[in-house]
Amino acid sequence: MTSSPSPAKSRVSARIAAIAESATLAVDAKAKALKAAGRPVIGFGAGEPDFPTPDYIVKAAVEAAAKPANHRYTPTPGLPELRDAIVAKTARDSRYEITADQVLVTNGGKQAVYQSFASIIDPGDEVILPAPYWTTYPECIKLAGGVAVEVFADETQNYLVTVEQLEAARTSKTKALLFCSPSNPTGSVYSEEQVKAIGEWALEHGIWVIADEIYEHLLYDGAKAPSLPVVVPAMRDQTIILNGVAKTYAMTGWRVGWMIGPKDVIKAATNLQSHLSSNVSNVSQRAAIAALTGSLDAVKEMGVAFDRRRKLIVKMLNDIPGVVCPTPTGAFYVYPSVKAILGKEIRGKRPQTSAELATLILEEVEVAAVPGEAFGPSGYLRFSYALGDEDIVEGITRVQKLLGEAK
User: Fold this and answer.
1) I need a surface site. Which of 8, 246, 287, 306 has the fewest CB within 10 A?
2) Which of 131, 103, 374 is closest to 242 using CA atoms?
3) Do 262 and 324 lie in a common domain?
4) Helix 282-293 × helix 55-65 angle, to 10°
5) Which of 278, 293, 308 is the last residue of a domain?
6) In whole numbers, what is the pLDDT of the chain averaged over residues?
7) Where are the alpha helices (DSSP H) in 228-353?
8) Are 58 and 287 contacting, i.e. CB atoms less than 8 angstroms apart?
């Protein structure tokens, strides 16, 4: 008697198989591959400043690399000098007073995002996720066993959710709210009044807030991005702040981020990191110390360029019939609505979704943008303006000509 064969087991775990590739990195990789093949592709996909890391930061890293002490393991939470620098920087920039044992240095901002959710979310817990959202948030929630509950605010709300929307999404399973201001992907910034209202709502209902402040220095038109636990001090014990050097100092490749939170949560996240990745590269940590303790002059210079590019790309996109592009007041992204173009004929095709439209734009005029599906509902495109002025003009001119053919 023969036994029936057992069902084949999946080679990849269901948990990991369910994780989607980063859409922004996928678009950027495709654009770079086409460029390497000789195609004149202009990539608006990655949120990566085109500026080099400031010289004084690079110099600090070179000096650090020559010292044997930096060739060794160091404490998992981060070099004491860096944690102290983060404490001082947080007081300087946010007026938020913390201590070093509330800080955990991570391998970039993404690790801080993952460890924050992993540290407070249990299977089945719900996390309210304002949309449009950064593409990594829902995947990290999923990895932690949580359930992302999307709350969408469209261009008529300047992509900013209201307390009423949050309350409508709240259930008995709601454990946390992800709050990002200035926002990736939209560049929208919540006012102090809005931050206060959201913080008080979270406090009333015992909801954690994970606040991503990575774009805090990239603000325009007099906008301010107040830190939630500063505006609502009673939220100190249920807020985790995420930050890093990547965007402010053009240090995306150095991989230094951090978490700030209640001591018990930071201790738990440190235990996780001790098994996950140990400590961050010491050379990168030394570079981060130089960044945080040095002058902000280079940051201000980059901000001037970003502001000029912001105004340029917004105007050029709004000149396209059917495109509606709100003017962002933070970060380095624009998030135009292209809903009025979907379904129209463009060079023999009728894109029905923003994903199909992004593919058409890449294929026809060799411009890479990220479709709205990566950040929530279809009908939008994200363009990063963290690239040179000439590339912006050339790239958006190509898009203007292509979409101008829509009929």
Assistant:
1) 8
2) 103
3) no
4) 140
5) 293
6) 95
7) 228-231, 263-276, 282-293, 297-318
8) yes
Instruction: Give me the DSSP letters along 329-378.
Output: -BTTEE--B-TTTTTS-BTTB---SHHHHHHHHHHHH-EE-EEGGGTSSS
**Pair 236, 319 in one domain:** no
Q: Is residue 132 reached through a cis peptide bond, with omega within 30 degrees of 0 on the bond before it?
A: yes
Please tell me the distance from the alpha carbon of residue 269 to that of residue 271, in angstroms, as a whole number.
5
By residue range, what is the domain housing residue 310?
Answer: 14-52+298-403
Report whether 260 contacts 243 (CB < 8 A). Answer: yes
CA 8/CA 194 separation, integer angstroms: 52
Q: Beta strand pairing status for 208-212 and 174-180?
A: parallel
Distance separating alpha carbons of residues 336 and 374, to the nearest angstrom: 14
CA distance 220 to 116: 29
DSSP 8-state class, residue 48: -
pLDDT 10s digits, 85-142? 999 999 999 999 999 999 999 999 999 999 999 999 999 999 999 999 999 999 999 9
The whole-angstrom separation of Cα 78 and Cα 85 is 11
Q: Name which of 250, 231, 283, 288 is nearest 103 in CA terms.
A: 288
Strand partners, 104: 259
119 CA to centre of own chain: 19
Tell me: do 158 and 275 sit in the same domain.
yes
Which of helix, strand or coil describes residue 152?
strand
C-alpha gyration radius of the chain? 22
- 380: three-class secondary structure by DSSP: strand
- The kind and range of the H/E element at 398 are helix 389-403
231-279 pLDDT, tens per residue? 999 999 999 999 999 999 999 999 999 999 999 999 999 999 999 999 9
Domain contains 64: no
The total domain count for the chain is 2
Q: Are residues 88 and 104 in the same domain?
A: yes
The three-point CA angle 161-250-58 to 5° equals 150
CA–CA dist 157, 252 (Å, integer): 30
Who contacts 140 (Cβ-Cβ below 8 Å, separation ≥6)? 110, 113, 114, 116, 117, 118
d(CA 158, CA 148) in angstroms, rounded, equals 22
